[in-house]
Amino acid sequence: MKKSLTNNFDIVAPVYDRLSRLVFGRAQMNAQIHPLKNIPPDSHVLIVGGGTGWILESISRQYNSGLKITYVEISGKMIKLAKTADTGDNLVEFVHAAIEGYQTELKFDAILTPFLFCNFLQGTTALVFNKLHSFLKPKGLWLIADFTVNEGKGKWWKSLLTKSMYLFFKLFGIVEGNALTNMQPVFFAHQYVLKEETFYYRGFIQSAVYIKP
Predict the structure, then answer these.
(1) Is the N or the C terminus of the chain less surrounded, counting Cβ atoms within 10 Å?
(2) Structural domains in the chain?
């Protein structure tokens, strides 16, 4: 029977950050850190797929208190690591769940999705986007960082690297996705406004902040 791919990074949790830095240096981290300045003070923030939790420490260095953070992560081992992060005086609720099944009546001022959509097949991408869209307040901010092959030159090596990454993670039975989705048209189709956009790793990594209408 074919093994189900659950987008769960338990198997690589202890070494994931080191693997990222080995391949991309600090590009993945910088793509997530740079837009944090846009988070409004005293806001309620949803982080989906935050991994080992280092992003919580980066947030606390800019906002040592006043934030309420809901941290949704499917990997139990990632959650365990994230709980050791220094979150300052911010209030953090850790939720061990797949975002596809997560339900809440809360509305958030900002949503962070670091390298989330690259895990999904197109159908799951649409489901997750629509769910998060419903969680975000009007005029709320959506901070996204992900891989892209759409920016600048070198599409051939970006495509080759993308295929290699998917092959690596599928060998460990981790991700269901097999191709990158260009999320910008999805945001624009829902009338989001692009506030800022930055590229890293020669255009392979995109960081963006969108404002919900």
Answers:
(1) N
(2) 9-212 (3.40.50.150)
Q: What are the residues whose beta carbons fall under 8 Å from the beta carbon of 181, sequence distance 6 or more?
A: 117, 118, 120, 122, 125
Q: Report pLDDT for 8.
A: 61
Find out whether 78 and 47 touch, Cβ atoms under 8 Å: no
Residue 151's pLDDT is what? 65
What does the alpha-carbon distance between residue 44 and residue 50 come to, in Å, rounded to a whole number? 16
- Running along the chain, 213 residues long, what does each successive block of 10 average in pLDDT? 51 72 88 96 96 95 97 93 96 96 96 94 94 98 93 80 84 78 95 97 95 98
- Residue 4 pLDDT: 42
Partners of 208 in the beta sheet? Answer: 144, 197
Q: What is the pLDDT of residue 12?
A: 67
- pLDDT at site 171: 76
